Amino acid sequence: QKLVETRGMDDFALELQRYIFKIFWSSTEFALPPYILNSNDAFRNWMTALVTALRRPVTAEATQGITDPEELGRHPAWKVKKWLGHIMHKYFHLYGDPQKARPHLKAFAENFLNNYAGPVTRAMLEVLSWPSQHGITISPRVANLALNYIEQAILPAITYSVIRERIDEFLTEIVFPYMCVNDTDLELWETDPLEYVRKTYDVLEDFYSPRAAACNIVYSLGRLRAERTVIPFLRHLATILNAYASAADGSPQKDAEARRKDGALLAIGHVKDKLLLKSELRENLGVILVHHVQPEFKSKYPFLRARTCWLFGQLVSTDSDIMNNMITPSLQGILGCLSDSDFPVRVQAAVDIRFFLRNNTAKRLIAPELKNLFDHLFRLIDEIDNTYIIATIEELVQRFQNQIPPLANALCMKLAATYLRAASTDDEDEESNLAAVHCLQAIDTVLQSLPQHPSNARIFHSIEPSLAQVFNVMFDVDNMEFFEESLDVLSTFIRASAEQGEISPYLWTIFPKIFEAFETWAIDFADHLLSPIENYISMGTEAFLAGGIGDVSYVEKVVQMVARLWGDQLDDSDADMGTRLAEILMLNCKGRIDGVVTELIQMIIRRLTVAKTNQLRIRLFSNVGCALYYNPALTLRVFSDLGCVQQLFVAWIGNLSMFPRIHDKKTSVVGLSSILTLPAETLPAEVQAGFVEIITSILKLLELIAQQRNEREQEHRRNALELLRESEASRNVEFQDNEDAEDELTSGYRHDYDDSDDFFETEDEGDFDSPLDEVDEVLYFVQSFREVTEVNMRSVMERLDQEQMISLQTFIRTVDEAHRDHQSYHAQQQQAR
User: Fold this and answer.
1) Distance of CA 57 to the CA centre of its chain
2) Could you identify which of 266, 285, 439, 621 might form a hypothetical disulfide with 419, taking C-beta atoms 3.0 to 4.6 angstroms apart as the criterion?
């Protein structure tokens, strides 16, 4: 405290403060020590020292001559302020809402909010006012942290009341200047436009940017407390637009007002949702767009041309009626900006044109220019790796699927080349790495957009050499960062190629490399390896069964993968991938791999005995159902040889009600139903004794499946309605000054994470296809039930209770009625011919 209260501050004293505050931050970042938590005096002393240090001005003399923002941030005085900003922002984040604090911290949070958050808010506002009141330039990082703190302080009424006292000054003199283009921006635009674009679209830059923080404040006020904040602020913005319009061309005033107009358009874009809600504001916005925004497509100021593209991109995505008459001129303006003389303008146009693609009028205008548009986009990504431009390419592919086939080869060739270039850059070049990932995702989108038609076979044949460049390097360890997306492309291409005819010989040369990668370095990618392996097996079954690597067949290689995933050295999450692979093998090669299925069944039982999690046990029981579906006689014989029939069926049937997924229930239905088709004399004694229990278990599962499907359909409807209501509510919300605001977009942000991983909280069915998708479980059961021997049938009928009997008759009647309807339909078709 003595150090903080000292007036004169030399560099040594400032460095000492910085170390003290940094240590305090490190000591309290994750948990409060008892010294702070249990002593009001200790915490009060610290907060007094922190606030005092925060409010002490950094004199203009102390940083005289420093013009570079980065150099300013390295000055000891601003380093101290930076750590104070970190501390205050973190404390408000954790303790600014007592309702969301952990139970043992609620009292501390209430103390912080009621006694300290207000003074800290006032101190933050004081710091932010230094540029306008004292001509002191704040380091960008400190401004960012202070503005981020203020954004959080908008929510509680107690801190918002402090902000509200000076809201007009706060928005016009503090927030707004940060939203305007500045000298640093324009210098970078002129000297290094590529770096300007990189910084503009770098998400990490936003974490440290005062402009991004200022935009967030305007957006939050617009959503939560607009009536007495943002709506009056709009008058200030209108004044700025008029001042620009009246300034003489070529005058210094025009140049200054152009920068302010850039900030005004940026602010309008961040409060657009509130503007569109009120008819009067909506009409005024329409006038602004016509008279103040649209003309700027031809502005002499390139940053205004770029900002105009951005604003129309923001507005067109709202589907507002004010854009109905603006679609054509605004789209033409953006298309024109694709040929702009300034690189950042061309990039901005390329990024924002994708928002127009959801509009039918815009799509009709773009369709004739599609090839030229792709040419513009690819010329841009030849100059810079930008994920947003690639996102525009993806959106174009999705929206114009019918026009893509003639362009598919050129698109894949260009995207593959861009991927290879971006992937070969330095590992620390995050933007290039992200661009490489997005290129692979765009290729995947192109492949999925091509319709299934034999005439497209030649297209896939022509695409293959381009994609071979990607596939040939995907197994290099140096490209591990892109392995998952590369596997996605490979999987999609295998499926698409097979749907047009067959999996090509070249693609089959990739298959052994998957096993090699798995055995050497890629075991952690097992979940992503499954998709291409499944496509090889399911869509190239004959070649898969006939092929191999040396003396080892492909079938044996897959079994070896399963064995490794089920090995003692791997945990249950890895073993789960093994159950999926075993299922793929048994269901797609039904009746054709008896030589390895015996070993596979033995492996299932062994892994089941040591499974630690319910999730894995359920997946393995599902494998048991698949094995019985594959060959019930063979599977029961292996169970008998292992002496596990009684124990296995008791555990399996006893856990059926805990199966969360429909898929696991269905595998159990078809597996148990397959047993019904066997002659009674071939059944193990334990199965024969529990035959009725098998029937009743199947009936229960069928009822649960029907109930679950119905519940899921109803839930989807409820969710859709709830999303619609929430969307409307979030746009119409308006909190009074004296009430705490609840931001639904971040309401769960400070909630404690639940460390439990309860499998039964989810009913995720996975994103895979299965041969069982084509099997109607009710029909399969009824058909199997009708093969039950007379002796067993009599036993079943005698032991089913009334409710079970009604359920059985209902399922049988459903199948019979469906069969009659099917026959009637075909008879009508025959008569029509």
Assistant:
1) 43
2) 439
Phi, psi (5° rounding) for residue 338? -65, -20
Strand partners, 549: 552
Collect all residues with Cβ–Cβ distance below 8 Å to 533 and sequence separation of at least 6.
514, 558, 581, 584
Q: Is the dihedral of CA 160, 165, 168, 174 positive or negative?
A: negative
In angstroms, the CA 488 to CA 554 distance is 21
According to the model, what pLDDT value does residue 833 have? Answer: 59
Separation CA 822–CA 814 (nearest Å) = 12
Q: What's the rounded Cα separation, in Å, for the pair 181 and 265?
A: 11
pLDDT, residue 514, reads: 97
CA atoms of 316 and 314, how far apart (whole Å): 6
CA dist 166 and 160 (Å) reads: 10
Judge if pTM exceeds 0.90: no
Measure the CA–CA gap between 787 and 761, rounded to whole angstroms.
38
The Cα 228–Cα 245 span in angstroms is 27
pLDDT classification of 766: cutoffs 50, 70, 90: low
pLDDT band at 826 (very low <50, low <70, confident <90, very high): low
CB atoms under 10 Å from CB of 301, counted, come to: 18
CA end-to-end span of the chain: 98
DSSP at 220: H
pLDDT for 158: 96
3-class SS of residue 462? helix
Per-residue pLDDT at 798: 87
Neighbours of 429 (CB within 10 A): 14
User: Is residue 523 packed enough to be buried (19+ CB in 10 Å), middle (13-18) or exposed (0-12)?
Assistant: middle
Interatomic CA distance for residues 42 and 168, integer angstroms? 37
218: three-class secondary structure by DSSP: helix
At 548, phi and psi to the nearest 5?
Answer: -175, 180
Which residues is 552 bridged to in the sheet? Answer: 549
* DSSP three-state, residue 65: coil
C-alpha to C-alpha distance for 375 and 640, rounded to whole angstroms: 67
For the cut 50, the answer to whether the pLDDT of residue 436 exceeds it is yes
- Among candidate residues 283, 222, 152, 163, the one with its CA nearest the CA of residue 733: 222
Reported residue count of the chain is 833
Do 780 and 665 contact (CB within 8 A), yes or no?
A: no
- Picking from 260-274, 315-329, 385-399, which range would have the lowest pLDDT averaged per residue? 315-329
State phi, psi for 552 to the nearest 5 degrees: -105, 125
